[in-house]
Amino acid sequence: MNSLPARYNRSIDWVTVLLYLLMVGVGWLNVYAASYSPDAPDNALSSLSFGQLMNFNWFKQIVWIGTALVLIVVLLVIDPKAYDTLAYGLYGLMIVLLIITPFIARPIAGSRSWLELGPVRLQPAEFAKFITALAVSRYLAGINLRQQSFRDQLVLAGLTLLPPVLIIAANETGQALVFAAFLLAYFREGMSPIILLILAAGAVILILALLVPKLWLLVGFTVLLIIALAANWRTLRHYIPMSLGVWAVVIGMVFGVDFFFNNVLQDHQRKRIEILINPSADPLGVGWNVTQSKIAIGSGGLAGKGFLQGTQTKFDFVPEQSTDFIFCTVGEEWGWLGSMVTIGLFMGLLGRIGYVAERQKSVFGRTYGYCVASIIFFHFCINIGMTIGLAPVVGIPLPFFSYGGSSLWSFTTLLFILLAIDAARKQDLERY
Question: Which residues are listed as membrane-spanning (predicted)?
Answer without folding.
Answer: 12-33, 58-78, 85-105, 165-187, 194-210, 216-233, 240-261, 334-355, 367-394, 400-421
